[in-house]
Amino acid sequence: PTPLPTAHEPMLLLTVTEFVANSAAFTYFTAGALRRNISSSMLPRRFPLQLKTKSMGVFAPQLQERYPDQPMELHLSARQQPLLSCHPDALHGTLFGSAEAFVVLPNTTRIPAFLLNIDANVTGKPTITRNRLGASVHLTDCVVRGSGAAYPQVKRLETLLKFGLWLFGVPWANSECCPHPRP
């Protein structure tokens, strides 16, 4: 139990318990809402790693040999319910995800290429900017394990994935959690 502060002026007090946070995570996971498919056409052309067998050849040379310059898809999903814990200054979460890569053939058949299991620890801290409630997200740890027919060099891919999360994922999450005020 946490004692509630006494205030002598109007204030908003927002309390989130681990039960509420984990119930929401369970609901999203059970409903299948923690899934996302990414195709090569969804990435910006300037993105450093395109979803094509040619780009993935660095991590899985067999892909480029067997399927020269074919597009790929990445199916992201939660392997299990995220675990959340509440602390006075932040919400900590452990995410258990998987990224399954497919080669897309000209007849639209999808050939499984490899599977990456990605476990990440994140921290979200509430923020108030110009009377707007938001949050900032911080990645504290990320572990990648790989398997599959075209077994990638996981250490290189893990390094690239961590870099991508820091460079693109965390800023995107922060822009979604705390959008800039509209003029």
TrEMBL record:
Keywords linked to the UniProt accession: Antibiotic, Antimicrobial, Disulfide bond, Glycoprotein, Immunity, Innate immunity, Membrane, Secreted, Signal, Transmembrane, Transmembrane helix
Main localization, broad class: secreted
GO biological process assignments: defense response to Gram-negative bacterium; innate immune response; lipopolysaccharide-mediated signaling pathway
Boundaries of every Lipid-binding serum glycoprotein C-terminal domain copy: 6-182
Pfam family of the protein (one): LBP_BPI_CETP_C
GO cellular component, one term: extracellular space
UniProt-listed InterPro entries: Bactericidal_perm-incr_a/b_dom, BPI/LBP/Plunc, Lipid-bd_serum_glycop_C
Listed transmembrane segments: 12-34
Annotated localization: Secreted
UniProt GO MF annotations: lipopolysaccharide binding
Comment block on domains: The N- and C-terminal barrels adopt an identical fold despite having only 13% of conserved residues.
Subunit structure: Monomer. Homodimer; disulfide-linked.
General function of this protein: The cytotoxic action of BPI is limited to many species of Gram-negative bacteria; this specificity may be explained by a strong affinity of the very basic N-terminal half for the negatively charged lipopolysaccharides that are unique to the Gram-negative bacterial outer envelope.
Protein name: Bactericidal permeability-increasing protein
Gene name linked to the record: Bpi_1
